[in-house]
Design goal:
single chain, 9 strands, five-stranded mixed β-sheet, alpha/beta
Amino acid sequence: MTRLLEEIKQYQSEFRQKAPAEKQRLMAEATAELTASGVAQGLDVGDTIPHFTLPDVSGKPVAIETLLEQGPVILTFYRGGWCPYCNLELRAYEREIERIRALGATVVAISPETPDFAEQTADKNGLSFPVLSDVDLHVSRQFDLVFDLPDYLIEIYKASGLDVAKHNGNEDWQLPKPATFIIDTNGVIRFVEVPSDYTKRVDPERILQNLEQNKKYED
């Protein structure tokens, strides 16, 4: 088992030991409902992504076309810096960033957080790659990743002191699924993973293997 998957397993074990049973039951129910709903399936391999520009943590606009001119782009959509699984995943990419760059690729993280909160996420995880703010989820919607949080889950979050609305700068209580895409220089999706279960994450090793295979094919 790779380090990221070990870290996720460890966190899940701690959560099961500490969290009230009813909270665990309702959170699992929300995941099951989202899976069964069939919403937010995401774009597929072979699709061409929409052109977009989003602000980074300093408010500077970053255009996906500019990044794709430099090489393939790994897009990772995360729910927010308040999500422990997202932080584990982002740190896992940072650990492998030199290997990723050696293959000519760029990692880009996108969330609905405002730039101020995105900056906090980047700082606490020591991220050296772009972290972009998709406030109001316009880009996430174009990638077919957006879903509504059920009312009972909103109440659980609020009771835990988690103010998603504050992080996102609106009262929509919507999130993207934690999706991962590899985009080639033509803007075509070469790899995609869109889990309905937010605890499931793609290990960077799989991403590296995919990049290496594509590079061999291109060479």
